[in-house]
Design a protein that fits this description.
Layout lengths: L7 E5 L7 H12 L6 E5 L1 H10 L4 H10 L2 H6 L14 H11 L11 E7 L4 E5 L4 H8 L9 E3 L2 E5 L8 H6 L4 E5 L13 E2 L3 H6 L12 E2 L2 H23 L4 E3 L14 H27 L1
Helix pairs in contact: 1-2, 1-3, 1-10, 2-6, 5-6
Amino acid sequence: MGMDKPTIGLALSSGGARGSAHVGVLKVLHEHNITPDLVVGTSMGAQVGGAYAAGVAIEEMEDHWRSVNFASALKTLLPTIPWSGWSSGRSLRRFLEKLLSDRRIEDLPVPFRAVATDLEAGSPHVIDHGCLAEAIRASLSVPGLFTPVWIDGKLLIDGGVSNPMPVDVATAMGADIVIAVDVLVEPAEVQMSGIPSIARRERSLGIAAMPDLESKRFHPSVFAVLFQMSTVFQKRLCEMQLAANPPDVLIRPDFSGDPPSYASVGCGIEAGEIAARQALPAIRRAMEVFRST
């Protein structure tokens, strides 16, 4: 592309409903004529990044995210048989096909890679060809929630299990400057709760006294424990990956005020916009440094 124009790579992390912030980041980059030359995404980052690479208008992506509510999210989670995951993902696949048609990764106007995890090998698997909707469906296959997907003889699950922040893939694709967007949940942000714990002595005496509120002890559900385990694992893996492959610019939206959920994700778009605007000077500096070398 010449030394005056760096190849800009955009790496979008996993992060569930917080992936709506990726749309906000793309919106601001577009407004300021900063055009990613290649995109790589994991899980929800693959859904947003794949749609962008396919040429789906940012306004259309924003409309989709703002229309998401608990009922629409629930439709993608209908139980399935055989039970290798809570949902077969057919509804999710139909949505992706409606959004992306029959586009193939190798034919996209913007080079794109979706990151999944090879369940048998236990390693990241970068999908660089084939049906875009199928690739994104594989990258989104949260263990236990959606059934795994077979692609090219490999059984694939959510890319967040092995590579939640794929900066290394963007670099391998030829990016001179990598802008990374991390929307992963900080474990300390999760409000853990459960059944209040009653002291053993009170239980043995059969006293139904109020638990000691100062101790804040409780028994979380198995789902809460598994969710927090996944949150801790992915965030720590992300930190290690960022240390090993530091991006030129790291964008971390602040969700502390109003964290997005599948019942309301619009606030995540705003968080992405704010973080992207704050990162604009760093992006321009990185481009100037490149031009001067």
